[in-house]
Specification:
Blueprint: H1 2-16, E1 19-25, H2 35-46, H3 54-57, E2 69-75, E3 80-87, E4 93-96, H4 105-108, E5 122-132, E6 135-143, E7 146-148, E8 161-167, E9 180-183, H5 198-203, E10 212-217, E11 228-232, E12 240-248, E13 251-252, E14 255-259, E15 261-264, E16 267-268, E17 274-278, E18 285-287, H6 289-298, E19 302-303, E20 309-310, E21 322-326, E22 329-333, H7 335-338, E23 339-343, E24 349-353, E25 355-357, E26 368-370, H8 372-375, E27 378-383, E28 388-394
Parallel strand pairs: 3-9, 4-8, 17-26, 18-25
Antiparallel strand pairs: 1-2, 1-11, 2-3, 2-7, 4-9, 5-6, 6-8, 10-11, 10-27, 12-28, 13-14, 14-17, 15-16, 15-21, 18-26, 19-20, 21-22, 23-24, 27-28
Length: 397
């Protein structure tokens, strides 16, 4: 009997050592994909002091880099609810602020945080600003309790810093389904050096024995309700098959690792290992322009304007696998994985390559960015404690 009780307690302990955050997603039409705007956003994100070409943004980017996998958090006491985009390519938490001006449409169309309605909130008054291609997100810093999902177990204390946005740039966030951004990168790239909420979760070994989080993204366009899942403090073997292949971090800024090789049908398109960043905040997969052009040609891509390539939809089943070597293992993207099948608004489909050429100069580049085209196919584990990123083949829901 004692043994059974011990086993039950052990199972309860395991169950409480992982937090699941269900993700929602948004699908897109052909008109909503603006490659130049996405490229400008990424350059602003990854090239220090980059001055963006605002003409590109004026084409009408209506969301955050066309990547909208988002989920719930709460802030304050009593809890105020928000939907946030979990972004491994940035390191700050921000949400709209209750005192934003009436003219800020993006702020007024989303849930807003009110420090005065939280008994645990401290308004520091410190100025905060993040530069985006369409302008800057501005606000002030508040300190308060932040909880994942609606669970009061995985929470920070009331000293957690977050930005309360009083100004959001242009139309970028107007149509976004999420309220704000939850950065999950490293503190070294955090604006104002504000520690991200995961730091406090990781420091609490009682609820978080493993300092990691993992993303499983659903890429089934017909399953709108199920966007995927993030697990905190452990992995979930129900979401992947085989072994996890690990790559150590190159540096503690972004989740930056070495990409061993990119090859198609035995031909290697890279010259030695190259830096790559695993970024849940973008939908595309980018690499140096000269390599991407060769890949587009190999898959029969038809060049359009602005660096976009179209593929005949009927050819998707016969497209070659594209192999990425990471952690000593090969990961194959099939045609259905790297081709974006988008509604053209006329009842038909347009098929675009999910690859985009982008040249990041030294010292940051040359650089690959593994966005949702890659993460959607491969279960991705961000291991903070061991400073590494792991990949395994995702299972369908």
């Amino acid at each position: 009997m004692t043994g059974r009780v011990f086993l039950l307690l052990a199972l309860v302990a395991v169950a409480t050592a992982i937090q699941r955050i269900k993700l929602e997603k948004r699908t897109y039409t052909r008109e909503q994909y603006k490659f130049p705007a996405i490229q400008e956003h990424l350059k602003t994100k990854y090239i220090k002091d980059y001055v963006p070409n605002n003409d590109a943004f004026n084409e009408g980017l209506s969301d955050y880099s066309n990547a909208q996998y988002y989920g719930p958090i709460t802030i304050g006491t009593p809890p105020q609810n928000f939907q946030v985009l979990f972004d491994t390519g940035s390191s700050n938490l921000w949400v709209p602020c209750a005192n934003c001006p009436f003219g800020d449409i993006a702020c007024r169309m989303h849930n807003r945080f009110d420090c005065k309605k939280s008994s645990t909130c401290t308004a520091t008054g410190a100025a905060f600003e993040i530069q985006y291609g369409t302008g800057s997100m501005k606000g002030t810093v508040d300190n308060d309790v932040v909880c994942f999902s609606h669970d009061t177990t995985f929470c920070t204390d009331k000293t957690q810093g977050l930005a309360c946005a009083t100004s959001e740039p242009g139309i970028t966030f107007v149509a976004a389904k999420f309220d704000g951004i939850f950065g999950m990168g490293w503190d070294t790239i955090s604006v104002n050096k504000i520690a991200q909420p995961m730091d406090q979760i990781f420091a609490n070994s009682a609820i978080c024995p493993n300092q990691l989080f993992a993303f499983w993204l659903s890429r089934d366009a017909n399953d709108i309700a199920n966007g995927g899942e993030i697990t905190l403090c452990d992995t979930d073997s129900n979401h992947y098959s085989g072994n996890i292949a690990w790559e150590p971090l190159v540096s503690e800024d972004y989740w930056r690792i070495k990409l061993g090789a990119v090859s198609i049908q035995g031909t290697t398109y890279t010259n030695g290992p190259m830096d790559s960043i695993v970024d849940t905040g973008t939908s595309l997969l980018t690499g140096p322009s000269d390599i991407i052009k060769k890949i587009q040609h190999k898959i029969g891509g038809i060049p359009l304007l602005n660096g976009e390539y179209e593929v005949v939809c009927s050819k998707i089943p016969s497209l070659p696998n594209i192999t990425f070597t990471l952690g000593g293992q090969d990961f194959n993207l099939q045609g259905k994985d790297y081709i974006l099948q988008l509604s053209n608004g006329n009842g038909g489909m347009t098929c675009l390559s999910g690859f985009m050429g982008m040249d990041i100069p030294a010292p940051a580049g040359p650089l690959w960015i593994l966005g949702d085209v890659f993460i959607g196919r491969f279960y991705s584990v961000f291991d903070h404690g061991n400073k590494r990123v792991g990949f395994a083949t995702s299972k369908s829901a």
